Amino acid sequence: MVVLRALSALGSLVLGAGVGLATVGLHRYGWGLGLGAAATAATLVALPGGWWARLPFALGWVALLGVASVQRPEGDYVVAGDVSGYLLLAVGAVVLGAGCVGLLRRPGARGNAGG
Questions:
Q1: Is residue 51 part of a domain?
Q2: pTM for this structure?
């Protein structure tokens, strides 16, 4: 069981890095940023919460964004300091927050919800 969850976490991490790569690569286009944010949000909603599914996806996504945000040897940046770059960084903050919120457990259903 632990091995399956570890493999699931690794797969989710790789999936997050892949979606993050596509989003970073296309963020300069309005449709690319929108599509990347929509695909990221849909994946975060579809993945169950926990350390083995949603959090590794978010960490992979944000890690790739962090790697792309540092200065390149040529002196330029992949994520520019313009509106689309700042929107991409904001999406990254939301992704990280959604991954961490996924760690919280929801309370179970009680016998009498009507009070």
A1: yes
A2: 0.85
